[in-house]
Structure formats: structure tokens, C-alpha cells
Design goal:
This protein is an all-alpha fold. It has one domain (2-132): Alpha Horseshoe (Serine Threonine Protein Phosphatase 5, Tetratricopeptide repeat), CATH 1.25.40. Helices cover 57% and strands 0% of the residues. It starts with a helix and ends in a 38-residue tail after the last helix.
Length: 170
């Protein structure tokens, strides 16, 4: 990280791409909160510079949304694993009990979609964030559905089963 910080200090032109790489490295190391802090500081700098704002603001907002989803995943799916966690459609037992990351993601993705309402990837991520809070489809803005408003009944439900030592799965 020290080399990345040195590069950031030297090159204003590469500020945004280098900081996005730095945030990605924090993600890689499981430090989503630190990535979020880097993106918060980057956004403040981007919003203060008209040229950077025009070119990069919504890229930064997108990364903030993805980072917020990762925070939610770390705090709920990784730290509180259950047999139905992170399997779509999100079961009632898998709804996030710590809503911080998902709520932040909803804010960032909603802000992004105000500028780019046809971005299907971000619409899907917004819907996913609502699912993790048990708010899908009723809380999703009618202009932003990316998945069917009604999901057919699931007859087969997959579940996460922990590996057991001494089995053929090792």
C-alpha cells in the first residue's frame, strides 16, 4: 500500500484510477471498511474538482455501492453463516440482521440510477440490496425493477451444507 500511496502523491492525473485500485486491493484483503473510507475521501476530492467530477463521479458512486454490498456481506453472510445465506432468491432466514451495508448500497445505487436509469447491472444490484433486507419487491422503485416483481414458488431450495472432516469432499 505504501507504493500506491506514493504514486497517489505524485500523479494527480492518475488519482482516481490509482485510488480505485487501492480500494480494490483493500477488498482483496477483506478490508471493505477501509475501501469504503478510501472511496469516501476520493469522492470528496472528485466532487471538489469540476473536471474530475464530470469524468469520474458516477464511477466512484458505483464503487461505493459495490463496497457497501461487500460490507453487508462481510457483516452478515461471512460472519453469520447459515444454511441459506447468499443463495438466491434470498430466504427469510438469510435476510441481513445488520442492515448497514445494504442500506448504504441502496443509497449509492439509487443515486447512480438517477443519472443512468437504464443501467441494468446497477438496477440488479439495487434489487439485490433490497432482497438482502427483505424489502423486495415492495420497496423497489417501479422505475428500477431488474428482476420479476413476483418470483415463482421455489420447489427445490438449495442450502449451504458445511463440509465434514473425513469425507470424500476434502
Amino acid at each position: 500500500m505504501a507504493r500506491v500511496d506514493q504514486a497517489l502523491a505524485r500523479a494527480t492525473a492518475e488519482l482516481v484510477p490509482t485510488t480505485l485500485i487501492k480500494a480494490s486491493l483493500y477488498h482483496f484483503h477483506g478490508q471493505a471498511d477501509q475501501a469504503s473510507e478510501e472511496l469516501r475521501a476520493l469522492r470528496a476530492r472528485v466532487e471538489g474538482d469540476g473536471e474530475l467530477k464530470e469524468k469520474w463521479l458516477f464511477t466512484v458512486i458505483y464503487f461505493q455501492g459495490v463496497t457497501a454490498l461487500r460490507i453487508g456481506e462481510n457483516e452478515n453472510c461471512v460472519m453469520c453463516r447459515g444454511e441459506s445465506s447468499c443463495i438466491l432468491p434470498i430466504a427469510a432466514q438469510a435476510v441481513h440482521t445488520n442492515p448497514r451495508g445494504s442500506r448504504l448500497a441502496i443509497g449509492y445505487f439509487t443515486e447512480y440510477l438517477e443519472q443512468f436509469p437504464d443501467d441494468l447491472e446497477v438496477r440488479w444490484l439495487l434489487n439485490l440490496a433490497h432482497m438482502t433486507l427483505g424489502q423486495h419487491p415492495h420497496a423497489v422503485n417501479s422505475r428500477q425493477p431488474a428482476v420479476p416483481r413476483s418470483v415463482p414458488e421455489v420447489r427445490v431450495r438449495y442450502r449451504r451444507v458445511p463440509r465434514r472432516r473425513g469425507t470424500w469432499l476434502e
